[in-house]
Specification:
Layout lengths: L1 H23 L7 H8 L1 H21 L8 E8 L2 E8 L10 E10 L2 E6 L3 H9 L7 H14 L6 E4 L8 E9 L10 E5 L4 E3 L4 E9 L2 E7 L4 E6 L12 E2 L4 E4 L15 E7 L2 E2 L5 E3 L2 E4 L8 E4 L2 E4 L3 E3 L10 E4 L6 E5 L8 E6 L3 E15 L2 E9 L4 E3 L3 E2 L13
Parallel strand pairs: 5-16
Antiparallel strand pairs: 1-2, 2-3, 3-4, 6-7, 6-20, 7-14, 8-13, 9-10, 9-12, 10-11, 11-14, 14-15, 16-17, 17-18, 18-19, 21-24, 21-27, 22-23, 24-25, 25-26
Helix pairs in contact: 1-2, 4-5
């Protein structure tokens, strides 16, 4: 084993030396201690990336061996660095690479490296000089991390990644970041003018930049991040630039800047909470509630009475205004759910809602027990229409109340 790993370590050391020189370029003569610090940065980032994301990457890529993580600094100043690190995907997988933002500070014990999605990342980015991590980025990372600690709402507040009011093809229904892997966090889209647009506001970052392509990630203030892969003709916005819903990111393509495979030009859209892939099941994006099934790529999207399967066209209705908590009606084997005049089955039926309908929750109350999809519950939700629905038939991402108690 040592005969195989020694050259790998030698290459890593050589790469870190080159990277260190790049970090100091343009900074003028640097003291020997700064040279030594920069030389060890790449190794420290790689080690942290493999420690925190290595197991996930092996599971997603269905492999025991991983390519060496790339380290791409965006900004640096003396003993601070900020950038991206990426584990390339194998060419055998229909996957996007595993990537993360990093921030690093060099101290007496060496480099301290923190990755996006952790408490330490927020703490360290807040301490970093503004020339390394801007004030706007610091604020965004804090908002994203705080929001990600809450249970995800069914309505993501995001649109689909193309022009609002236009229909594109869903070439591949919900699937894993590498096809068969769980969770089913990704969907493939193509159509229209091919222009891929940001699904929501935030800041944009490119990782594994090669041959005019890259993995593009937008970090959103609402706790989500979205990933976009296979694109060409990328935006010329710099890393960390602010974007709005609908900002141009690139064109659909078959590009593989960091591994994977692709058939037919498309964008591989991934949904992340903080920096972890999450299932799109029951999540509302662009006005559609996406549903997963056992087999990858075979899921579908629903909106009211309309269901669109793989190969169908979806109109992008854009992001919701995200005014308060929402839920998605889920009657299980029943196609619709009754609405009541009060919080129990003893109250009269005042209407019905079809499965997949997105509703907004005004407040909650404890009432009559119902045997729902997730067990027995006495939690009821009063909708903004004034009608009541049992929490047993409303997917909100949690079994706990997501809105204040009624009357408080």
């Amino acid at each position: 084993m040592s005969s195989l790993t020694s050259p790998r370590r030698a290459l890593a050391a050589a790469a870190s030396v080159v990277l260190g020189a790049g970090l100091l370029m343009g900074a003028g003569p640097a003291p020997a201690s700064a040279d030594a610090a920069a030389d060890g940065l790449a190794d420290a980032v790689r080690a942290t990336m493999l420690e925190q994301h290595g197991d996930t990457a092996r599971e997603h890529f269905e492999t025991r061996s991983l390519a060496e993580p790339l380290v791409e600094p965006i900004n640096h100043e003396n003993r601070w660095a900020f950038g991206t690190t990426t584990i390339p995907a194998p060419s055998t997988a229909h996957a996007s690479p595993e990537s993360a933002l990093f921030v690093a500070e060099h101290g007496p014990a060496g480099w301290r490296v923190e990755l996006h999605g952790t408490d330490g990342f927020v703490e360290l980015t807040d301490k970093a000089p503004d020339d390394v991590v801007s004030e706007g980025e610091k604020e965004l990372f804090a908002q994203n991390h705080e929001a990600a600690q809450e249970a995800p709402l069914a309505d993501t507040g995001l649109g689909l990644p193309w022009q609002q009011g236009v229909a594109w093809w869903m070439g591949g229904g919900p699937h894993g970041n590498s096809g068969n892997s769980r969770p089913y966090s990704s969907i493939d889209f193509n159509g229209g003018n091919g222009q891929v647009l940001s699904a929501g506001p935030g800041r944009v970052y490119k990782s594994c930049v090669r041959a005019g392509s890259a993995l593009v990630t937008v970090v959103h203030p609402n706790g989500y991040s979205t990933g976009y892969y296979h694109m060409r003709n990328l935006t010329n916005l710099s890393n960390g630039a602010a974007v709005r819903t609908g900002t141009y990111l690139g064109l659909i393509g078959n590009e593989l800047p960091c591994g994977g495979s692709s058939t037919g030009a498309h964008v591989h859209l991934s949904l992340l909470r903080g920096n972890s892939h999450i299932s799109v099941d029951n999540m509302v994006i662009g006005g559609w509630t996406f549903r997963t099934v056992a087999q990858p790529y075979q899921g579908y999207a629903v909106r009211g009475n309309q269901r669109v399967n793989r190969g169908g066209r979806l109109i992008n209705y854009g992001p919701s205004d995200n005014r308060g908590p929402t839920g998605t009606v889920d009657g299980g084997s029943n196609p619709r759910v009754n609405l009541r005049s009060g919080p129990s089955l003893d109250h009269s039926i005042v209407g019905t809602l079809n499965n997949g309908t997105l509703v907004r929750i005004d407040c909650t109350a404890r009432g009559g027990y119902v045997n729902g999809n997730w067990g027995r519950t006495n939690l009821w939700n009063r909708l903004d229409t004034g009608n009541w629905i049992s929490d047993g038939f409303l997917y909100t991402g949690t079994n706990d109340p997501v809105a204040p108690a009624c009357g408080t």
